[in-house]
Amino acid sequence: MQISWLGLEGKSVIVTGAASGIGKAVAQEFLNCGANVAVCDLNPQTPEFEINENSGKMIYLHTNVCDAQNVKETVKRVCEEFGTVDVIVNNAGINIPSLLVDDKEEHSKYELNENIYEKVMDVNVKGVYICSQEASRVMVKKGAGVIINMSSESGLEGSQGQSIYAASKNAVNSFTRSWSKELGPKGVRVVGVAPGILEATGLRTLAYEEALAYTRNITVEKLREGYKSTSTTPLGRSGKLSEVANLVCFLASERAGYIHGVTINVAGGKTRG
Hints:
Blueprint: E1 12-16, H1 21-32, E2 36-41, E3 58-62, H2 68-82, E4 87-90, H3 114-142, E5 145-150, H4 154-157, H5 163-183, E6 188-195, H6 206-215, H7 220-228, H8 241-252, E7 263-266
Parallel strand pairs: 1-2, 1-4, 2-3, 4-5, 5-6, 6-7
């Protein structure tokens, strides 16, 4: 096996929400680096990955991050297959665009309600704590491990039409800071990654785009133009999935051994803080 500069060969990695988008890109990059990866997702169909002689092993586990017993079984299975858990990437998340008050139509489907609140908070906050807790039980026992929490630029600066999503990601940022103080002395690093606008995530359904466009009082076409606009960021472009995946793998490696308790912005300079 070819040795990568990150030294991730043989590491046991869990990636949640890994059937598509950022999660799939992250899982693929870990495999490219020789890590053994548990691809975890609610999607019942196993996604396809590029595997070669230098790739690590991969298992696909149907996982509901909001179900504590299911997550416990997932972590147990990973330990049986790969011997331990070295890294967990908490990527699973949902975003349901909504307005606090829709002045066009009271109680419309685009107005925030308890159902939207509970769905987003359940996956984005509860799911992160459940997965981190089970993985860290393994890590603390051996005195080593890395927890990587996927956040968003929305969690750093807020986002029109995405208040609950932004709040959930801000909660994740707080998890990162607080758990770093709890787990650092036990040998476990905790870091966050906050992507900005990306070229394509595979998760922007028409229904999602229509909802977000409505909350911003623009057309879907105008929304899509924003993804491609050269004025979106100081770098003049949107980000790539591979750029997020590369950072995540670096943070999981010993080369990032002194990076702890922070959420790193990957937004082309658009968000600072």
